[in-house]
Prior knowledge:
By secondary structure, this protein is an alpha/beta fold. Helices cover 35% and strands 16% of the residues.
Amino acid sequence: MPPLRLPTRLLLWVLLLLLPAGAGCTTAAVATPRPVLITIAGSTAMHPVLQELTDAFTRRYPNVIFTLRGGGSTLGEEQIAAGRIDLAASTLFPPEKTAPGSARLVRVPIGVDGLA
């Protein structure tokens, strides 16, 4: 095999040097995140702060969609115990005894209601 001429060798080296750079240029399919639906019900006194929190969260994670319902703390606690909603907003103090079906629930205080 005859030796390669200078322009051919130069072209070969350029191609070999550019090959790794082109390897990272493939377009990968970007999957759109699946929508996540979260329903919150309960305290109407908490509705304004919940609206602000959920709006901010949705701006950061647009695939998360919140549905806010009022109805009062008792209704929220009943619906979460029955599994009809994802989160309950309540301004009630925790009861001495837990209601049937609520043993698996966790209370997370986020503030104190000045209306009570």
